[in-house]
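Q: What residues go here?
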């Protein structure tokens, strides 16, 4: 027997928080918080989960993951959440075959838990890879110079003491609609610049970002690691 279920997202509202600077490009005036809620669809809508927010900056076109939020952003999220009520329709599926639905939810929740667990494992693996990079490791990077951002890669060339030297990729994706292509990690030498950029491993660990020694400072935020043919995603 086959049960069909989907995890869907309900969009509560979008609020502009112009007073708060974007944690990625440090520009104020362009940050939006979107209040969202996941729920499951099994023969109807069931099992709404906790509300969460997605922060998006219209200036650098970057989504800021929760781990990078400032205290002010956390406070704004709590405010948003306070007056958002889970719509009754998200529970409507419970009226349909309650036992069947309960069984399917149980199974589906195991899958959701499994994927959360995988994400945590990947975060630990990437942390370890930043501390001890291996030549050939490819990091998926969002690079920002404070005004514009792109999606690219760093390939580890060599490690020397506290320094990791990477070849930056020639590929720079700027269109968010092409994000799928970003996951097709290029491995060939022709996809990377011949020159190497050096970063301090200790500083990269501390910031959880590759920080360029330029003025103004540029950043490369790590999203995932490609190692031995597998892409380990952090988010
Ligand atoms: Zn920004």
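A:
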């Amino acid at each position: 027997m086959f049960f069909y279920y989907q995890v869907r997202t309900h969009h509560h509202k979008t609020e502009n928080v112009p007073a708060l600077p974007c944690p990625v490009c440090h520009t104020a005036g362009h940050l939006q918080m979107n209040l969202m809620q996941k729920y499951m669809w099994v023969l109807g809508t069931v099992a709404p989960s906790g509300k969460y927010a997605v922060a998006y900056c219209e200036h650098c076109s970057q989504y800021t993951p929760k781990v990078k939020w400032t205290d002010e952003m956390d406070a704004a999220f709590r405010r948003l959440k306070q007056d958002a009520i889970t719509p009754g329709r998200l529970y409507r599926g419970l009226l349909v075959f309650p036992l069947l639905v309960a069984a399917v939810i149980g199974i589906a929740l195991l899958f959701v838990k499994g994927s959360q667990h995988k994400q945590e494992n990947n975060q630990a693996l990437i942390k370890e890879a930043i501390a001890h990079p291996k030549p050939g490791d490819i990091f998926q990077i969002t690079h920002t110079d404070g005004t514009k951002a792109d999606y690219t890669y760093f390939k580890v060339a060599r490690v020397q003491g506290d320094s990791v030297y990477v070849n930056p990729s020639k590929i720079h994706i700027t269109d968010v609609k092409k994000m799928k292509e970003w996951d097709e990690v290029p491995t060939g030498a022709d996809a990377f610049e011949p020159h190497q950029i050096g970063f301090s491993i200790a500083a990269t660990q501390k910031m959880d970002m590759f920080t360029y020694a330029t003025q103004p400072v540029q950043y490369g935020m790590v999203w995932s690691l490609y190692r031995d043919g597998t892409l380990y995603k952090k988010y």
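A: Context that may help when evaluating the design: Helices lie at 71-82, 98-131, 179-182, 201-207. The chain has two domains: 6-96, 129-233.
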